[in-house]
């Protein structure tokens, strides 16, 4: 199966870092938009500058950290139910 | 009248005839049936119905309204896409069962009474378990058994609810019931099982990933969406559903993060998406109900697309475990692209389908002042991008290169994925086409600059969180494992309890037997002693004594007679 040694753009870690930095720039620009555009929302507190950005970031970090704790509780060997 | 040849009959008939059609022609035959059904649906108008009488029950096997039509359209589209996707399958059982299953689900959403609903309900259970068993493995067989037990339990609850309603109202008509209505709790439990309510959800994660590459795609479309339809019909505006749906949207995503089997990850994300729909039904507003139906419509397409891409990976790479995969974009670039379209759709990126559907439910929750639930749903929205939108394409097609070099998916699979992807983008770009078939008129406007910016902020920063956790090594690695969920109660605790109870009963039984045999022994010995020479029964008595006792008895009788 292992045959082609063709180099892909994503194989270079430097390019992945470029993508990563690019994503940060996009994120920062989106938050900056909040200061230009009055973002009307159904809920008042959601109109805070960068609310969705902060919420999304912390939601995902806490999701992953909580899932790591959950894994310690519920993880069993792969053949658990077959034994 | 076109209503007299229901779409359900077309699909079920095609499914039953399929094994008789030559294998070469069967794919085309099965792909044509949903198109005919779609043509039939296009000729129906809300308000039409087909009535019948059976054993004195007034039945309505077909009732057409906007709610059933919306589900009917998407079921027909899904079963067409599934037929294309499974075009290469040469066995008869799975595609035939899949078509009967689709037809049964179609029949159920047009059922005007609970008896008809029950019949189709059970038919979906039986046909779908055949789709699971078609995998042919021991694991699939056992998962199928657990699956059918749960599905039939749902059917029994539905039958019970129907009986209670009939006893109370003298009618089997299937309309809004409400929890307080006759049989309401039974019906809610029946529908709740199909919707995979929390603690009733494990049949889904257990069974769906055990079906074949094509089978799982079929399964993902119908059963749970039938549950959502039944809830929307029977329990609109039921407050408890807002809570149940919120819990459903939130809790499976933690499991999705640590699950290794990528099709099982998608099964968890089905729970999460159905949670949004259940909230929409619970809110019961026109916006909420429209949102629930629209999101169910969109979900069938994007979830089908995601399962299709994972099915293609399973077919070509031989596994869908995160631990085995990575770097497949090099071998399967088209499948990877379609997977990303599905991922963007489920994550509600602007221009992709869920952007215009899930947001209706969120807007309705905010409008109704459900701030806490709204925050949890927003958390779940970020989470779904994280576990389905990023994790699925990332671990399958990118991450570290697993070294697997395989062929691109078969052409028929690519065509099905392309069509599904086109529909996802189509609904995203022009949601008004979908809004036109919803139960209520839509005034909601998804493309405001505020909504676009807010959603992009949420998603870009969720992606950044993933990237940061990956680059710092905090993100939990994919591991081969079983993660205990509620099914542990009936796969481990239950059987262990039964075994323990069995042992206890065995001990008790042995003790009783010992006691009984000892008692019988003593009784027999006493009898033998009584009958032995000189014993109580063997003595001889004088005739005079007997005559005296007779006289005493007669005197006593006489006295009793006088008083």
Description:
The complex is a heterodimer of chains A (83) and B (563). Chain A is mainly α and 83 residues long. Chain A has one domain. Helices cover 58% and strands 2% of the residues of chain A. Chain A contains two helices and one strand; from the N terminus they run ααβ. Chain A is flat. Chain B is mostly helical and 563 residues long. Chain B folds into three domains: 211 residues, no CATH class; 246 residues, no CATH class; 72 residues, no CATH class. Chain B is 70% helix and 3% strand. Chain B contains 21 helices and three strands. Chain B has a two-stranded antiparallel ribbon. The longest helix of chain B has 44 residues. Chain B is elongated, with a radius of gyration of 31 Å. Chain B starts with 6 loop residues before the first helix and ends with a helix. The interface between A and B is large, with 54 and 58 residues.
Characteristics:
heterodimer, A: 83 residues, mainly alpha, 2 helices, flat, B: 563 residues, 3 domains, two-stranded antiparallel sheet, 3 strands
Estimate the strand proportion of chain B.
under 5%
Tally the helices of chain A. 2
Q: What separation lies between the terminal Cα atoms of chain B?
A: 85 Å
Structural class of chain B: mainly alpha
Portion of residues within helices of chain A: 55-70%
Oligomer: heterodimer
Could you describe the largest sheet of chain B, including whether it forms a barrel?
Answer: 2 strands, antiparallel
Tell me the major beta sheet of chain A: none
| Count of individual beta strands of chain A | 1
The outline of chain A comes out as: flat
Overall radius of gyration of chain A: 21 Å
Helix content of chain B: over 70%
Number of helices of chain B: 21
Number of domains of chain B: 3
Q: What's the SSE pattern of chain A? A: HHE
- Would you tell me the overall average pLDDT of chain A? 86
């Amino acid at each position: 199966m292992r045959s082609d040694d063709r180099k892909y753009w994503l194989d270079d870690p430097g390019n992945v870092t470029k993508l990563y930095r690019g994503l940060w720039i996009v994120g920062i620009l989106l938050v900056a938009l909040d200061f230009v555009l009055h973002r009307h929302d159904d809920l008042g507190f959601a109109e805070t500058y960068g609310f969705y950005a902060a919420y999304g970031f912390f939601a995902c970090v806490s999701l992953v950290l909580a899932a790591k704790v959950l894994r310690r509780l519920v993880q069993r060997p792969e053949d658990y139910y077959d034994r | 009248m076109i209503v007299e040849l229901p779409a359900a009959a077309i699909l079920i008939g095609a499914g039953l005839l399929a094994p008789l059609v030559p294998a070469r022609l069967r794919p085309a035959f099965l792909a044509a049936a949903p198109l005919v059904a779609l043509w039939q649906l296009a000729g129906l108008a809300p308000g039409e119905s087909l009535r019948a009488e059976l054993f004195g029950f007034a039945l309505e096997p077909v009732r057409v309204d906007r709610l059933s039509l919306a589900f009917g359209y998407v079921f027909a589209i899904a079963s067409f896409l599934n037929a294309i996707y499974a075009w290469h399958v040469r066995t008869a059982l799975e595609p035939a069962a899949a078509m009967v299953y689709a037809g049964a689900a179609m029949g159920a959403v047009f059922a005007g009474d609970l008896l008809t609903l029950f019949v189709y309900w059970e038919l979906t259970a039986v046909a779908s378990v055949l789709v699971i068993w078609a995998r042919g493995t021991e694991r699939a067989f056992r998962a199928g058994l657990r699956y059918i037990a749960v599905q039939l339990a749902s059917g029994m609850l539905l039958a019970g609810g129907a009986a209670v309603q009939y006893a109370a109202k003298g009618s089997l008509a299937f309309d809004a019931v409400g929890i307080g209505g006759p049989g309401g709790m039974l019906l809610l439990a029946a529908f709740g099982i199909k919707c995979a309510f929390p603690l009733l959800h494990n049949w889904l994660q257990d069974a769906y990933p055990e079906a074949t590459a094509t089978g799982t795609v079929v399964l993902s479309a119908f059963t749970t969406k039938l549950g959502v339809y039944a809830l929307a019909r029977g329990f609109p505006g039921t407050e408890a559903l807002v809570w149940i749906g919120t819990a459903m949207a939130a809790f499976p995503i933690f499991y999705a993060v640590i699950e290794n089997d990528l099709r099982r990850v998608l099964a968890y994300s089905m729970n999460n998406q159905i949670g949004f729909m259940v909230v929409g039904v619970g809110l019961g507003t026109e916006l909420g109900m429209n949102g629930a139906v629209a999101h169910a419509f969109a979900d069938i397409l994007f979830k089908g697309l995601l399962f299709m891409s994972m099915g293609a990976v399973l077919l070509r790479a031989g596994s869908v475990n995160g631990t085995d995969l990575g770097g497949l974009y090099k071998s399967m670039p088209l499948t990877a692209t379609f997977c990303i379209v599905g991922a963007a759709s489920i994550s509600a990126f602007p221009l992709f389908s869920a952007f215009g559907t899930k947001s209706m439910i969120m807007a309705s929750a905010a409008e109704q002042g459900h701030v806490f639930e709204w925050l949890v749903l927003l958390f779940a929205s970020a989470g779904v991008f994280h576990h389905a939108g990023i994790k699925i394409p990332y671990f399958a097609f990118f991450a570290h290169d697993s070294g697997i070099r395989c062929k691109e998916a078969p052409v028929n699979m690519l065509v099905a994925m392309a069509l599904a992807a086109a529909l996802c983008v189509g609904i995203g770009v022009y949601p008004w086409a979908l809004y036109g078939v919803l139960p209520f008129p839509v005034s909601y406007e998804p493309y405001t600059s505020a909504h676009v910016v807010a959603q992009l902020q949420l998603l870009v920063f969720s992606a950044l969180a993933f990237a940061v956790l990956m680059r710092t090594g905090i993100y939990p690695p994919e591991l081969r494992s079983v993660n205990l969920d509620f099914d542990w109660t009936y796969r481990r605790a239950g059987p262990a309890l039964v075994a323990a109870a069995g042992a206890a009963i065995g001990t008790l039984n042995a003790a009783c037997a010992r006691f009984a045999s000892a008692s019988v022994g003593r009784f027999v010995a006493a009898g033998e002693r009584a009958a032995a020479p000189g014993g109580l029964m063997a003595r001889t008595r004088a005739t005079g004594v007997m005559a005296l006792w007779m006289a005493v008895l007669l005197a006593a009788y006489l006295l009793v007679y006088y008083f």
